[in-house]
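Continuing the series of single-chain predictions for the mutant panel. This is the parent chain; the variants come on the following pages.
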Amino acid sequence: MTTLPQISLAKLSSDKTRVEEQQCLRMACEEYGFFYLIEHGIPKEQIAQAIDASRRFFALPQTTKELYGHASQDVYPATARGYIPLHGEMLHPEAGPDPKEMFDLGIEKQGDRRPFAGITRLPDDVLAPGFARSLLALQATVLNEVVPQLGGALADLLDMEKGWFRRHFSPPTVLQRVIRYPSTGGTAGKHTDGGFFTLLLQEELPTRSLQVWFRERWTPVPSLPDSLVVNLGDMLQALSDDRFKSTPHQVVHSGPAERISLPFFIYPDVDARLTSRHGNHTFSVAEMMLRNFESVWEKGNGGGRALELE
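Parent structure:
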């Protein structure tokens, strides 16, 4: 693999090109579990604003950032929202705690006390100019312009009944993350993602920090201008009766500049209980998400199927 397949969201959304592009999407899901999403409709300026505001937040004094840590968040689990310092998360026990710092948020809904819901305690615009504002604006664009179209196309490939995606993703559960990888040494241990799919928005840097496990080796993935990187999660692999791949990946950042990335982890409605087309897998979304968070934050066993990865 010299590069990932490219899938056009515009073609998936057009009656004239949908069928042909869905066949390309099927191939990407079955053979790679990763692809570039092009013609996705998210303004480049909006991504740049969120990255710039995130960089300013991470440059704040450590004591200021830690005011927004897990202990300050009134959500369940508390580890789903807020600031995480360097070495605060471990995605694979063999690698140890990851040298990266992060901020997590989600769909902000006052009074929603379900797991992975509610309101994130975010810094205001005086302390962190543009941080909350740009991230929530980007979230709205992703949820309106990308998730329904791409998610619907993936659901069609699962051969689910008509209306399945709308019924189980209205709204979806979203874990939105901002990550800063320090220069010459930021990493994220090898893991799989637990959800339906992940959208990765990132800086276009010459260093190929993201690595994908493909044909028994780690393959660096270059940045493709004006694209998102999409990877499939463990829930989608299960719902496809293991036809589609939730591919292991890791980050090894060795560039001279820090790297900001903005992943969106997309899950079904947290209340959903889902069964694959052929009945091989049935799971509660909330239970599967909580098990994964317990593995990362309480048991130290890593993310997704990390323990299966030697």
